[in-house]
Amino acid sequence: MDAILLQILNGLDKGSAYALIALGLTLIFGTLGVVNFAHGALFMIGAFCAVTLQKLMNLSYVTIDESQTDFLGNPLKVETPYIEAWFGPEFGATIIDWSVPLAILFAIPIMLLVGYVMERGLIKHFYKRPHADQILVTFGLAIVLQEIVKYFFGANPIQTPPPDALSGSIDLGTMIGFDPNAIIYPIWRLVYFGFAVAIIGAVFSFLQFTTFGMVVRAGMADRETVGLLGINIDRRFTIMFGIAAAVAGLAGVMYGPLNPPNYHMGMDFLVLSFVVVVVGGMGSLPGAVLAGFLLGILESFASTTWATTTIPGINQIIIYLVAIIVLLTRPRGLMGRKGVMEE
After folding, report:
1. What 3-state class would DSSP assign to 162?
2. Interior CA angle at 122 toward 128 and 32, to 5°?
3. Residue 44: alpha-carbon gap to chain centroid
4. Is the pLDDT of residue 61 over 70?
5. Which of 9, 31, 41, 262 is geometrically suited to a Cys-Cys bond with 237, CB 3.0 to 4.6 A?
6. Does residue 336 belong to any structural domain of this protein?
7. Contact criterion met (CB below 8 Å) for 327 and 47
8. Mind telling me which residue stretches traverse the membrane in this protein (predicted)?
9. For the chain, give me the number of helices (H) and strands (E)?
């Protein structure tokens, strides 16, 4: 039982990333009808927002410490971060230590701006074009963004460690009645899952309980009728594109401590996230979230030693096998709207 619970936790961890990216993809497809192959790049940009803030916080100046010398007897050069100079050594060091969570505040306006510029500058010109055109142009944009990040940050992964207080592991087993050391789990993985649940809950609450969200949901169902009521639905959809970009970016910010950011991480998640969207149902927000967590858990169980020994390579194809089965039996996806992808 403890092994099963551990695999479920591992699945929820990866499923959280799938669900957040798929949620943003579905928001864009459901509102604008655009198949956005650049969405994985938004996830990557979010991760590098955390990298950028970490680098900014570690900017330092050099002073000469006469009280210390090197092996040649020369005074030592000491690098002091500006943050520590401005806020004091202890508080400044704490701010640097918590750079990843603080990057959430840094990333939100950046991702909203990136989403707005992407939608207004490029995506809006392809609303009425075939999905194949949308895929080609957004995939090309993803490659451009990927190469820009590679140019400025290099090709190697960059470590973005979590705060020291959240970098260890806890004994979950003793909390739920198991023997000590039965289920030892990293704290940050639990933090990421909790963060994903909070973001998903916030998005659904925004769409369900605010006037803006209700108008957006009405526009997703019948765009022309909402427009006839004198509502500028295009402007609201542009804002939703920015929100979708922010959701993907925040997913990337918090994912950095789990897997050091690199320039191709967006592409690594993109295809899998589209599979999640298709399995959950194109245009279905609950379906995207459900499929994200479900496929994350299935992938976790398929990665166990028993599974890979019994069926070699099953962990690499399990998600695609599930997608094939779902689409053969229910083309619209698990929770897709009737008529979508069933022509």
Report:
1. coil
2. 45
3. 8
4. yes
5. 31
6. no
7. no
8. 15-35, 42-64, 95-114, 190-216, 237-258, 270-298, 310-328
9. 15, 4
